[in-house]
Amino acid sequence: MRIDIITIFPEIFESPFSYSIIKRAKEKGIVDIHFHQLRDYSTNKHKNVDDYPYGGGAGMVMMIEPIAACIDALKDERNYDEIIYTSPDGELLNQKVSNQISTFENIIILCGHYKGVDERVRQYYITREISIGNYVLSGGELAAIVLCDSIIRIIPGVLNDETSALSDSFQNNLLAPPVYTRPANFKEMIVPDILLSGNDNEIMKWRYEKALERTKHSRPDMYNESD
Ligand code: SAH
């Protein structure tokens, strides 16, 4: 999968994309991430990418010209499955959305700033708008990092144990069951016997029951959906 990220702060991505699962996915060549400094597409001598809003009011607006130039240049090179804009008023990110996007070959992610982007970018260039939650961030970079992490980790071949992503929360509308590791007894806090029994069937049953219990307790909305 190829991901092209359009941003005025590519440096923000350095650390989160240099560790753990994303690092491994890049090293294995499963994901190829490219950054595009939006200022490089500004024709303005100060490399500005924002301007005052028509009609007045607080805050600046990201101009259409540099964004259009950048997206057009990328589209000249290849076809994109989706051109995503991170936006608080977009479709709420969830596991289903991540699963779907993880199957794509090429995507662009545009990170907004200030008051957001000129509406015409959203109308004519963007194919999908994604929000990571009902709160406002200062910029789209953190949202893009969350989106990339959630999609990259489930691309087949990224995780060593293929079943591991499938047993995480939200796959099958269930939260993950509790997990334990050594020691079995820590100051009289005991690991459930069943997990030490070696009986795989019983363990699977126990995990499923605990996942149901946890979902019913913590996310009754999801539990009802899984009926
Ligand atoms: N004026 C806008 C907010 C702009 S915040 C409004 O009220 O809707 C600046 C940028 O941060 C946005 O353009 C977007 O790219 C990003 N952003 C902020 N909150 C976000 C969220 N919850 N999910 C995804 N992106 C977000």
Q: Write the CATH homologous superfamily of the largest domain.
A: SPOUT methyltransferase, trefoil knot domain
Bound molecules: S-adenosyl-L-homocysteine
Question: How big is the Rg?
Answer: 22 Å
Largest sheet entry: 5 strands, parallel
Structural domain tally: 2
CATH architecture field of the largest domain: 3-Layer(aba) Sandwich
Q: What integer is the average pLDDT?
A: 96
The assigned structural class equals alpha/beta
> Helix tally?
8
- Would you identify the regions where 5 or more consecutive residues have pLDDT less than 50? none
Shape: elongated
- Written as H for each helix and E for each strand, in order along the chain, the element string is EHEEEHEHEHEHHEEHH
* CATH fold-type name of the largest domain: Alpha/beta knot
How are strands sequenced across the largest beta sheet?
Answer: 2-1-6-5-7
Tell me the fraction of residues in β-strands, as a range: 15-25%
Straight-line distance between termini: 34 Å
The CATH top-level class label of the largest domain: Alpha Beta
The number of strands is 9
